[in-house]
């Protein structure tokens, strides 16, 4: 055997050992090792996944919750509803392109939309700190009302709590939503199959970078604004054009990278993505480089990731690009069968690397 051939075999063996170690680690029963909750537990990455599975799923386990989708699908009197809930703790409360109010409405509408539902009703719960300016509260509520009208939903119930000064950071909001599922087709990341295509509806990372820069800690000037917007119209157009869509997710905490990992792990497939195909605004890429983060892990609030049958990728792209929120939609990758459970990125430099779940929380409190 030639020296070159022995080197190739050694390289393949080393690669397989790495894959085997990753698979062994993932098979372990999730366990929260920390004694106290950290910001990383809210990042949407590895720590969040462990917290959800080891604490909440373990305690509340049932068939609906085990799907771990953005919304729960419920059968009610012969009909089907989608139900979701979300809490918003963004800092600062006001940022270019939006504020915590429209973010709360759009975020919950979008979780219903990617469940395949038509959003109908929302609840709104406010946790307000003593001393919070009434003018700011009015501004937030007015933006929520405007966002609800734009999305075609109604806020039909709610709750208000006021806590002592210093016990909260101004204002937190929880919104829950109910939507109507009108199609028998069930969406879910577990349904991804080898040969499927992976699409994103537009440039990624806008929201997370906008919020980070709005904190004023980095003294960076930028024209980037949050992409917060309701995506249910875009989703409806996509589902009309391609009823066989496998899965939809909105890329919020943990960004597109987290969604891709959820697809790979849930369906036990390989997700292979081309870095050059991923749309990222120049301003977002530049700010991300200065911050030392990868745009793939940065939250969006008006972007969806879609998995569609490979043969219908172009039809899906056309449908998305025909909608104002999907004009820059792109085909970013494909679903393969090996190595199962992993996301691989074909880099612009010609190599390939594993895109794992986010570790830590480089951008806390962005939604």
What would the keywords be for this entry?
367 residues; seven-stranded mixed sheet; five-stranded mixed sheet; 34% helix; 23% strand
Strand order of the largest sheet: 9-11-8-12-10-13-14
Our estimate of the beta-strand percent is: 15-25%
**Percent helix among the residues?**
25-40%
Largest sheet: 7 strands, mixed
Task: Using the CA coordinates, give the radius of gyration.
Answer: 21 Å
Dominant shape: globular
Mean pLDDT: 91
- How would you spell out the order of helices and strands? HHEEEEHEHEEEHHEHEHEHEEE
* Alpha plus pi helix count: 9
Termini Cα gap:
57 Å
Report the count of strand segments.
14
Category by helix and strand content? alpha+beta
Low-confidence stretches: none
Account of the protein in words:
- The protein is of the alpha+beta class.
- It has nine helices and 14 strands.
- It has helices spanning 3-27, 46-60, 100-113, 134-151, 206-214, 232-241, 255-267, 282-291, 313-321; strands at 72-76, 79-88, 94-95, 98-99, 118-129, 154-163, 171-180, 197-200, 247-250, 270-274, 304-308, 330-336, 343-346, 352-354.
- The strands form three sheets. Strands 9-11-8-12-10-13-14 form a seven-stranded mixed β-sheet. It has a five-stranded mixed β-sheet with strand order 1-2-7-5-6, with helices on one face. A two-stranded antiparallel sheet has the order 3-4.
- The longest helix has 25 residues, at 3-27.
- The relative contact order is 0.16.
